[in-house]
Amino acid sequence: MAEPILDYESFFEGAKNALLELDTLSTEEQRLSLESDRISKAIDSEKKATEDKIADTTAKRLKEITSTYDSEIKKAEEQKRLAEAKKEKAKNKKISERISDETKDLREHIATIKSEIKQEMKNVGIPAFCNTRSYFTFYFPHKFFDYIKILITVVVLFLGLPVLIYKLIPEHKPIYLPFIYFVIVLITGGLYIIIGNLTKARHRDSLMKIRAMRDNIDHDMKRIVLITKDINNDSADDRYDLSSFDNEILAVSDKLSDLNAKRNAAVSDFENNTKKIITDEIRESSREKLESLTGELEMTKKSLSSIADRRSQINLTISDKYESYLGRGFLNTEKIDALQKLITDGEANNISEAIDLYERRQNG
Q: What are the transmembrane regions (predicted)?
């Protein structure tokens, strides 16, 4: 309950002192709050720097450990690759030798037939071009693919070629086509008949004999292809005596397995033991600074709490003791000085009169 003011001088001085103390406490509270934030950020920054250093250091140490093993593992893998390549090369050589050995009789038979064909052609005077697949296809066809080739040739010569020539003629006209066909038939047909008369008609029996010989060559070539395919598909290495290469590959594989096992063991030991030691050492190095900052933060917060309590207490005192008389608008040292002067000078007998007089003068 508000009590009557007996001593205005003391009242006004008390109000001004309370306001000044409140302002000082508020300023100090703000400063301590900012200081508390700064220290908290410094602690967070130090903790982050510590964790970053732990991460960087452990990653670097782990890389140093694994890089040596990785280098040796890479060398072992390269040794294994080279050993496997040497084995494959040796196996391919053995396969080629096997193919050569198992097809030797067939190749010799083919060589004998070719020699006989050459001698037969020489004896009867048959031109060399007659001993070609194309010649026998067009003059002595007897296989399915011979007739397919003849059909394709007819389509190209008597359909494709005339149309092509017709398109290449400037300002071509449809009337040109019959002449183009006539010329092509005349040339190709004439050449076919002339060659036939000079070779097939004169040496038919010899050419039929040569055709039979060429069929024997084709038969032997097919057998060589089948034998080669069977040998290439044979996955067994036993017959090729590659044990020395297998031993080398096995030795390198064992070395590679041993290196990988040692690498894994080194990584496991680092993760389970060394990493913890490094972490503890780095944290210990920053412990003193963190403890100092933490202690400083605790003291700052304690001071801040004390200042905040005192400010709150003064604020309540001002509200209870002075605001009820002066009103919130006059809780200002300059205005309180003005009210105090009005009462001291006798221009007002109490605070209410002083406030009215002050406001009238301020309003003009």
A: 150-169, 175-199
